[in-house]
């Protein structure tokens, strides 16, 4: 006898008050190996119902979602893969603001998670890449989707050995542990060569 489980659901969104193509919800129902024959997906303006059987996990899945606002189910797209069911749900109302949440009810759902691979902050969505997320790696397996964290600091850290004529604010900053001796030696050598 198989038990019915709720699948994990990942979501992200974009919004636009002028372009319907940029006003949508990304929804991923994470259920591996559900053949088309056992997949039932009923999409309505107010929500969706999903049920399916995973052959590898030998488990039935069921999900009912009631959306925060209406979607245009005729414009929405579904991509069924061996790993999951991906949906691109077009929001019916064109608005600049994001939906405050995916579901009508505001209580926390344990199976519902933000899709950080596809999420973009509201004020940065116009710079976001269109539709193609292939530059992001798989999940959060440790490579963090190819993000170079050294570039997130907003520029190079001052090393203390730049010569600038206007006088540098670096002098006011205390040296890091271990750098004090090295900096002192470097300044001592600099004085010898100037003399």
UniProtKB/TrEMBL annotation:
GO biological process, one term: protein folding
Protein's UniProt name: CS domain-containing protein
GO cellular component, one term: cytosol
Composition bias type Acidic residues, residue spans: 160-183
Family annotation (PANTHER family): CO-CHAPERONE PROTEIN DAF-41, TELOMERASE-BINDING PROTEIN P23 HSP90 CO-CHAPERONE
Organism: Coniochaeta pulveracea
InterPro entries per UniProt: CS_dom, HSP20-like_chaperone, p23-like
Biased composition (Basic and acidic residues): 184-195
Region (Disordered): 147-195
CS domain mapped to chain residues: 4-103
GO molecular function: Hsp90 protein binding; protein-folding chaperone binding
Similarity comment: family membership: Belongs to the p23/wos2 family.
């Amino acid at each position: 006898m198989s038990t019915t489980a709720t699948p994990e659901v990942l979501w992200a969104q974009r919004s636009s008050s002028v372009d319907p193509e940029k006003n949508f919800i990304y929804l991923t129902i994470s259920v591996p190996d559900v053949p088309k024959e056992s997949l039932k997906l009923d999409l309505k303006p107010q929500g969706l119902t999903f049920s399916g059987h995973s052959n590898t996990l030998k488990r039935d899945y069921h999900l009912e979602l009631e959306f925060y606002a209406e979607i245009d189910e005729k414009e929405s797209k579904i991509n069924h893969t061996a790993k999951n069911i991906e949906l691109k749900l077009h929001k019916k109302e064109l608005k600049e603001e994001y939906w405050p949440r995916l579901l009508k009810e505001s209580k926390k759902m344990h199976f519902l998670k933000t899709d950080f691979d596809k999420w973009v902050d509201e004020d940065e969505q116009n710079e976001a890449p269109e539709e193609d997320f292939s530059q992001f790696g798989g999940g959060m397996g440790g490579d963090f989707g190819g993000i170079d964290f050294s570039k997130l600091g907003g520029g190079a850290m001052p090393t203390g050995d730049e010569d600038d004529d206007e006088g540098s604010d670096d002098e006011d900053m205390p040296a890091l542990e271990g750098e004090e001796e090295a900096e002192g030696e470097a300044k001592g050598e600099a004085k010898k060569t100037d003399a």
